[in-house]
Amino acid sequence: MKFGHRGGNQPVKNLETGQVEITSQNHGFAVIDDQKQDEPISFLNLNDHTVEGILKSGYPLLTVQYHPESAPGPNDSRYLFQKFYDLVEKTKKVKTYDRIYTTPRQNFRTSRWQRFFHRGFGQRRLESRNGRSFSSKKFFRHWLWFELLRDCEKNRATLKER
Questions:
Q1: pTM score, whole prediction
Q2: Alpha-carbon distance 5 to 34, whole Å?
Q3: Of 21, 75, 134, 157, whose CB neighbour count within 10 A is largest?
Q4: Which fold has domain 5-99?
């Protein structure tokens, strides 16, 4: 894309319903429209006919390249959030998310780390500075979450430096 899509006046057509929405966008890239792909295109930009959304078949994935949370109308793109919520609920019932991960969930359940943290290590109780006690299983979950957040912050910092 030479200039990208900028501003709050980009017309996007929903190919499932035929409805046109005026969207807010801020990106300088486009998905290649290849007719051989198996993912059905669900949204199309009417200015330059670039792909604005894909519905991934077989997986609970729905993508759009615009900002549905900042649509000009108060409820213009509310259906996208409802559709995403329905996909998540359906996935929780069918458990298709096991296919998305590279390793099956059962491998972690029987791994030595799981046995270490949830059997041997998870039975003890830790005392914090303020006198509250909590299990080491809970401590490990909080520690893991902190490490993930810290890694995200490091990556964000290295991206800003470049």
A1: 0.51
A2: 20
A3: 21
A4: Rossmann fold (3.40.50)
